[in-house]
Design goal:
two-stranded antiparallel ribbon, 5 helices, 3 domains, 5-stranded antiparallel sheet, 29% helix, 197 residues
Amino acid sequence: MKQGTAAGLAQEQAAAAQGPGTEVTILTILMALWTPAFFAMLDDSADRGKNARANGGDNFGGLNDPGGRGRGGGGSGGGGRRGGAKSVKINGEPWRAHKVGECTSGCEIVARDIEAAIGGKIHHVEAKGGAPYLGQVRDHGGQFMNPAGGGNHIGWPWHKVVVKDNRVYDALTGPAGEAFQLYKSRFQEAAGINWTF
């Protein structure tokens, strides 16, 4: 383990929280990483990758390959894009319009993958006035449902989406995306959400 890395720090914090003589699991490491500073680091990393791609590289996983010839490269003039929407995987499956409640978490990873594949900009969506959740989301059948899937999940405290060419893209929209107004209308508490697009 390297000292000073996010994973190393998380492992040390998890071990300290567990006490001596207990085994550190992946779950305890992930729980220790789940902090606002961690998500800020993810956002900074996505911005660095976007800037690298704008300058002709791809910067996926630290790879900075001008011309897009490396992992998933686009060949001549590819600009480093990874195969478009077909390359996006959600829960190990090709990107499609998921049902509300089918994807309970991980929108920041999905948004990063979508942005890397099709471009656009990642936007953070949260409730106004410190409300704890975004509320229910309308499924394709017109029924409002808990987007986090129920069970121990109360709802989404925030959400990450990709915006490109006046359309919104996430796991719920699928590769076709949705127009701004249609997407916003799917949220029961849309007036109480701070839309950043």
